Amino acid sequence: MSDRAALLKGIRAWLVFFVVCLVLSGATAFPLVHELRWTEDLLRALSVGDHLPGLTDWIGRVRAGLDEADAEHPFLLYGTDWLAFAHLVIAVAFYGPYRDPVRNIWVVEFGMIACAGIVPLALICGPIRGIPIWWSVIDMSFGVFGVIPLYVVRQRIKRLEALTAPVAVPVPGI
């Protein structure tokens, strides 16, 4: 296998990994009410509250809020449907770099900027919305861990670009 083919294969593997994570992250925003009930039941069954009472209290509070919103104001959950949809749409954008990494490196760089933007969003909006700082750290980890495969992909695309760049042929003087 040539260097170019190996780079392309690695780029595509990392992109698939990133897209799968993005789709899973988005898809989990659709059934939030049920997920929180299952999460709370699981934490209770595993006695997590004995070791991490703050976590179980927070999950219980969020579940109660979602239950109330679902029962009294279900239209509020429409916002999380849009959040999920946005994840899916962004995932589709990564088909461009999958197909032609060098020409579409901007999508990878856009993704890296979006990952970086998670940190100030969580630090600013988390306290405004009453989110515990430790939960904001969990939210920020999505950006921190999300940028890793994108950084690897960007580095490989740059190497691929160098391999495929046209070689300047000297023109003999006239």
Summarize the structure.
With 174 residues, this protein is mostly helical.
Salient structural properties:
mainly alpha, 7 helices, single chain, 0% strand
How would you explain this protein's 3D organization?
- The chain is mostly helical.
- The protein has one domain (3-162).
- The protein has helices spanning 3-27, 32-45, 53-72, 78-93, 95-99, 105-128, 133-164.
- Helix 1 packs antiparallel against helix 4, helix 1 runs antiparallel to helix 7 and helix 2 packs antiparallel against helix 3 (53-72).
- 16% of the residues are buried.
Which regions are unreliable across 5 or more consecutive residues at pLDDT < 50?
none
Instruction: Give the terminus-to-terminus CA distance.
Output: 41 Å
Instruction: Spell the H/E element sequence.
Output: HHHHHHH
Shape: elongated
Structural class: mainly alpha
Q: What is the number of helices?
A: 7
**Arithmetic mean of pLDDT:** 94
Count of individual domains: 1
Describe the secondary-structure layout.
Layout: H1 3-27, H2 32-45, H3 53-72, H4 78-93, H5 95-99, H6 105-128, H7 133-164
Transmembrane segments: 75-95, 107-127, 133-153
Keywords: Membrane, Transmembrane, Transmembrane helix
Protein name: Cytoplasmic membrane protein
